[in-house]
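G., the chain you wanted modeled:
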Amino acid sequence: MTENKIFDDNEQQLLDAMGLGEDGAMQRDYIAYAGKKLDVITNHVSRESIIDALKTVSDPEIMINIWDMGLIYRIEQKENGDVDIDMTVTAPTCPVAGILPQQAADAVAAIEGIGLVTVKVVWEPAWSIENMSEEARAMFEFF
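Predicted structure as tokens:
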């Protein structure tokens, strides 16, 4: 499968989840996956390591990472090394909404000792500028 085909499929899945798909009906959640189940759990990964990985993913339009943007709502680490993340996007029509969740999943899955990563896009509560860190808000004012 080509990279463009994967992107097109992910984008269509997100549009369907937002109710903006071909039939306009809310169909399912948008979920990105990365990594794989671990055969042996070698060490516990710190929450800070996961946050540091999420900080490597930025909105390319404003160059603020998804953590400081306040897009990450929940991180759940499981004893088997899997990680579940709930995130949102700034707006349903955000042009990079279809790629940020996968980038977040990939970044966390790249950490040694992490198993399967699931990133689910949630719509409640809706994102607002108040979610941003103070530093991100200061940077945001430049745009």
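The longest strand covers residues 72-77.

Shout if anything looks off.
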